[in-house]
Task: structure prediction
Amino acid sequence: MAIAFALVLLVIGTVAFHFLNPWWFTPIASNWTTMDDTVNLTFWVTGAVFVAVNLFMAYAIVRYRHRKGESRRAEYEPEYKKLEWWLIGLTSVGVVAMLAPGLAVWAKFVTVPDDATVVEAVGQQWSWSFRLPGADGVLGAIDASLVGADNPFGMDANDPRGQDDVLIPGGELHLPLDQPVKVLLRSKDVLHDFTVPQFRVKMDMVPGMVTYLWLTPTRTGEFEILCEELCGMGHFAMRGRVVVDEAGTYQAWLASQRTFAQLQARPAADLVAGQATFAVCSACHGMNAEGNQAVNAPKLAGLPAWYLARQVHNFQQGVRGGAPGNDIAAQMAAIAQPLDDTAIDNVVAYISTLPDNATHRTIRGDAAAGASSYTTCAYCHGATGQGSWSTNAPPLAGMSDWYLARQLQQFREGHRGRHPQDFHGAQMARLSKILADGKQTDDLLAYINTLR
Amino acid sequence: MSYVAIADQHAHLHDPQTFLTKYVWSQDHKVIAIQYMVTAMAIGLVAIVLSMMMRLQLGFPGTFHFINPSNYYQFVTMHGMIMVVYLLTALFLGGFGNYLIPLMCGARDMVFPYLNMVSYWVYLLAVLVLVASFFVPGGPTGAGWTLYPPQAILAGTPGADWGITLMLVSLAIFIVGFTMGGLNYVVTVLQARCRGMTLMRMPLSVWGIFMATILALLAFPALLVSAIMMALDNHLGTSFFMPALMSLGDPTVHKGGSPLLFQHLFWFFGHPEVYIVALPAFGIVSDLISVNARRHIFGYRMMVWAIVAIGVLSFVVWAHHMYVSGMNPYFGFFFATTTLIIAIPTALKVYNWVLTLWRGDVHLTVPMLFAIGFVFTFINGGLTGLFLGNVTVDVPLSDTYFVVAHFHMVMGVSPVLVVCGAIYHWYPKMTGRMTSVTLGKLHFWLTFLGTYAIFLPMHYLGILGLPRRYFAMGDTYFIPQSVQEMNAAISIAALFVAASQLIFLFNLAWSLKHGKPAGGNPWRATTLEWQTPDTPPRHGNWGPELPVVYRWAYEYGAPGYKDDFVPQNQPPDGRVAAKHG
Result:
């Protein structure tokens, strides 16, 4: 008997939970309301079957349960074809009622509207970038073998169609409101999946091929992009953002982006000019950029130009050092202000030529114990702490350990990596959470101190 | 006929004499069955511990600093692979298949007893290789149980050095071992049934295991070739599944391969695999319900044809796992249609289980509770399958916790409930003793209600958009704080359910010595395994002569008989079959 009551209570509880729980679809931001409709329809049909069959089962148990001392016999009627065919028929009707609308919506999904514009989303471990076809409306050729630190998109420089392609490395894509868009999806390394929950549609990104989905954004706002196909250690931290703008705002954003040709046309770095600019930096960071703990200036020698340039830009734009309560970073933000793009290119090129000498170690810990914590770091920062442009991770080996300790703390406490434009910092902030303060951190830094 | 004549002569069987040949290098299907069961449950315990690690992280992120993304993904992967292949497949086919097929078909043993023995030892080797991957540098693979390339063999995934290789080797060994066993099961069902045991008189347990074995023999080769091809891609630099790509910024040697090819091969195995686990569960639960409702299974013929239809259809639905994989989206029309068609025979099975209770004489024994719990859980899990099978409905839910909830309901909890029910049901035959009813009921309620509390809310977290396979959600602005609270509650429920399995193990161990003596047929069941002259059955099962079958397996409540059940081997004139031993 208890089981029959339990079944009834579970049915009631399930239905109540369905209607009362606080979790449902995010408010939709695309044209795919029909997808929500098919989900709702399926809930009604399957819900009715769930309630009916389970309550019938509970009733059958109560009514036909064996009572002690009673010698009743079950009915013996091996074949009952008519009822079975009725049940098969009814089930088929229910199946068709769910399948037909589903296929009708799917027919829309496979038919991309003619007026859809094209954007390309590119996935890699573990970040997003985007490409727009530019004025000619055609994306230029790319080749996996051309991908490198200087050409992260793998653009074919000889393809005229690619010259006007707009390259957006940052992790944030803007889309105009009410304009159908076909999102071409590409991956440089492993499987990823382009998902914006508010858009409903999603699709895997497969290396070696181009997949797609299409949608029409129907409300402005910022929406997080999640990777929803397991892509390795950093899968959960692979985030991007779609911003849906009114037409005017969108055009302004588009105008501020740079094309492949513009990026190619940047002059080669002038080391002499860079050395002159560096005079200011050297006041704190030292003549050879070896760092100076007394004034909280980390070692810069040994850091690659792409990382240094990004950080200077971040300081300039308030992405770093803009959060309250971080006076040290605020100092650097002020100093970075007067530099223009050319000056930044020059000075970081100069710094990357400086000798990468060993630093003074300030942190003691159990390096052997730290080695196991470092396995997580190694995915992005490299097995020997050498850093990697592809994972946007700076070198750690030979860097100022007191500075690394402070940055870890800043990431963990939300002072760094919080700015909406700091996608890579946000990733580090997520990953820094796995590390306990104190001994575990000291051990890790002691291990990093052994790397070279 | 010549086979039957030999099989009838017990003297030809060469009973094992030593401890080693009786219990270790045994060729007796019953011993091999128990070896399979014990091994599968032992590795299953590892999988449960792994799932608890995952729940600790998900419920209380940032609290347990020994859990990091690498080992979290390793827990996820190994939990899934162990549960699906090394526990459920091995337990249903190697365990119950071995135990039940010869006994229920009235055979002395499997037709190839030596091969059967080798099958187990090869399975054990596969398990040991799998376990070894926990102890190699870099640990086991963290590629997810689907092992999708390219990431499975690239540096960004945990266990890319040794773990993935051991995983592929272990799977290959498992498949070799399974093939030995599987051929045995099929040939035994087809060739070694006793006189009178026609196919349409077989218990549904045998039908389910038989069909599942055929599926496995056809499906596992797809996994075998994909494992071999991936190992070649990994070690010899071939490019079956690997296009030109980079790995964490470094170029690779690969060019021209297709990651989607692997997915097609994997799911060509992987979807039938669902039914490799489900069909034995369907069959066994039909028998548990029929015995305890004291009524013939409702619509036996339809139940058999439904098993066959599901088995055949299960080979043409695989790409419903790939709606958002980037395959040609037009496939969606075909696979959505085939997938929803498979719901029809499946629904029929559910109706017939419930209708078997109707006008029955329902005894709520411990196995029956598990059977009813299975039907409820399976209805829930089956219905959510209609969401994920229907391509449009799948897209917003794909890769979210809705999927996790669905497959745990339908092929995690459901078959596990059947496994438990089946062990409680056949334990008296295996050991000669009953299990404790009190402990059995306690185990049932904690497991049944606990698992529902774990997986029901997950559907709604998935509808909200919570992605699966996330080490930590962190700050994500569409995810409210209540999700974290729910995750903590789910983790607590999961810890309870995991702990309650200890009650089960204790019950099995305790009853071995202290259980009430069972007698030969404690459930008053009709099928042949309950009519053996000895309990537990001795080597050769039947004494001097094989049984002869005169009727179907569901003669319960038939009018004109003294008892409410008539054993299959009882002659039609009502005389009691000659007893031996």
Q: What stands out?
A: The radius of gyration of chain A is 29 Å. The first helix of chain A runs from residue 2 to 20. Chain A has three domains: 2-60+82-109, 117-140+158-261, 271-448.
